[in-house]
Amino acid sequence: MKNLFDLSGKLILITGGAGILGRQHAEAVTSHGAVAIVADINYIEAQKLSKYLNEKYSKTVAIPEYMDVLDKSSIIQICEKYDKIDILINNAAKDTKVEKKGDLNTNIRFETMSYDHWKNDMEVGLGGCFLCSQVVANKMITTGGGNIINIASDLATIAPDQRIYRKDNIKEDEQHVKPVTYSVSKWALLGLTKYMSTYFADKNIRVNSLSPAGIYNPALPDDFVDKLTSLIPMGRMADTGEYAGAIVFLCSEASSYMTGANMIIDGGRTVW
Questions:
Q1: Which fold has domain 2-96+122-159+179-217+239-265?
Q2: Which residues, including other chains, have CB under 8 Å from residue 243's CB and lie 6 or more apart?
Q3: What is the pTM of this model?
């Protein structure tokens, strides 16, 4: 059974690879033998993560690359550097953290959001996934197949509960919300996953999605954590590393007969 999860010899491209979740994906796949291309618009952070992983294993297990997921030439340039990309993890996204003070503004409310803001969010959250999938899938077709994993969200299957973001003594039209663009782009990722899974099935390309919930960190306000965890049957947010097993499973031969599926790991939140 252990061999089913072996990723030795696999080259895995992770977009948004230097972010909080991207880092965990990179650590998970390299721990099972893969080499990760840590692709991020923040090249300095991609370098730092790659250096950490390479020193940890005393060999090259991570390669930093600059990538702008909205610049097709940037994606093509990376793909052309490598003979084969076995797995693509579409992780890059724009996520407005309404629980963080710096992101609090009323411009993201449905009533006041500008169309330019809508287009920008949708481009990053959905357009980037489309462009990366298009470029990499074309390469996979020429090299015998591959595996694409789209990182969605628990909010790809439910609407955000705006009550957890509410603040006392603030007028209704000034309350901060999870923006519509985040939910819609994540829901659309599930549609894209299903479309590509059938479209590329005869090309030996599997396509699945992972829908994680929020990961706890001590910087989160206590009142926000309390409100959110009250919606989760397990009574807590995810711990760092709790999605590692799912990523390895989706990347490996353990999921060889799985395509078009959405794996929800959310402590049961979407069950209630």
A1: Rossmann fold (3.40.50)
A2: 21, 24, 25, 28, 210, 212, 265
A3: 0.94
